[in-house]
Design brief:
Blueprint (H helix, E strand, L loop, with lengths): L7 E5 L11 E5 L18 H8 L16 H6 L17 H11 L13 E4 L3 E3 L2 H17 L4 E4 L3 H12 L7 E4 L11 E2 L4 E4 L10 E2 L1 H5 L3 E5 L6 H8 L8 E9 L12 H21 L1 H23 L4 H4 L23 H18 L1 H5 L4 H20 L6 H15 L10 H11 L5 H14 L4 H33 L13 H29 L12
Parallel strand pairs: 3-11, 4-11, 5-8, 5-10, 6-8, 7-9, 10-11
Antiparallel strand pairs: 1-2
Amino acid sequence: MMTQGREYMIDQTLEAVGDKHLYHAIIPVDFQASGVLEKNKRWGDGLQQFLEMKHQLATTPLSNVTNYLSNFHYFQKYLKGNGIFGVSGTLGGDADKDFLARHYETDSYIIPAHRHKKVVELPAIQVTGQAQWMEILCKTAMRVAESGQVVLVVCEDVKTASELLKKIEGENPHPPITLYTISEKHNIERTKFRGGHVIIATNLGGRGTDIKVDQDVNIRGGLFVLLTHYPGSRRVEKQVFGRTGRKGNPGMVQMILCGDNLAPAYQGQPVEIMRQLREEYEVQRIKDMETDELLEIKMKEDLFGTFCEFLDKFHGNFTKQERDDLSGMGPNDVPECFKEKGPKFDYQPALNALKETWALWLTLHEEHIRQHEDISVLKADLLEHITNRGNMLLNGKSQNFYDHIKQATGRTDLHLRNKSKCDYEAKSYWKDVEECDPFYSAVAMYNQTFITINMGKDGYKTEAQELLERAKTSVDVYLSETTNTMVSFQIATRGNFEPHHEGERNFLKQIDSRMSIHQAWILNIDLAVNQLKELEGEGPAMTEVS
């Protein structure tokens, strides 16, 4: 179950230049721990694209994992040196400390605080019914604010925070309210809050946030932290309550929970019993994690290690010159080996192809890994798969259309540095692209035309015209598929698909832009053909790169 305002949000990923909604994207939220919007994260297995379609946003490409190193094993690497040292105000319970001791060889010590804590914890309250719970939260926050304190209300997710904000703003009069759910937009650490202010936040406001209040607020009891959900661990609870009573100042904390949202074992229990049960659950959760999740992580890293060992050996099939970075080289510095068509793919396209092969293999074998199948069998299967792929690449063969495109694009980049002298066999590689998938050959023929004109060999104008005419016919395939996509989308979204804003949808704009590009492409082909006909017998043709 994926809910907007909980597991994900729709927000801008880039600074908006014009209409802000055009920059909207699906952004995962770490709502259970930090409350942070994970803008660099994309879900796999088509989930990201499904949510984009659901909200009629522009779709993004599918992504694959090619490099794999978990946080768990990353920190274990420090054990080879002097070990791990650190300080934490919220290390967790005994289960967490035992876990750190087993896997990171750490001892834990309690360092006495410089000042005594002056935090008063009020009795936790369980409320039956969402509406009644929201009403009590609203009244409690307003009552405490009226007493001259600052109230920090920490909600489980953005959706709840937004509902509570709307509820309090509906009261007349209502206290000044600050929303803190997105760190980039709502920076509350720069503000010194006066009494009577209410801050509504997610766990983003309950983790490492230093909330400053006037001295008058401290005289009236300090910052009041109102926790509206029961955290999954003692560590997160302590982090939230740790926002108040800092630096020797007074503070107050209270949990007001909706019983409907609690696990059955917690419902109706006093908070002391709830904490005891949670600690027992935490022990079992960590045990399950060690026998399940950590084993899967270990298997993936072992398989990634097998892939890396294969890559080390694969490098030996290329000379140092063949592996050199060509991006900054001038035309006179390009090695001779790139001026002819070799028997194998170039180093970078071959490397990219192998990384993609590994990523797809890992995706297709996720279930095998979840079932904890024999790692030696999986390693053997992976090695056979990437070895076969590597041998094909070393023989200049691939069934993947995009491998040939990357190869041809790299050689075309070299050709652009010396347009009239050498094509670095780029034209030949674009022919390979065309042969690999004739239905999508428009780009291949268009680039062949470009190179043909640049080289200016006998009969090049006639050949260029023929290539352009064939390319124009092939562009119709793109136009047809784009049109079908648009029609299918319009049919599919007649149901309960939720648009992210009123007016024209981003997805339709994206498809419309593609169609405009294809139509402009056809127009440019027609113009180029006409110009080549006009230049017949009158002089050389030239290309321009913008």
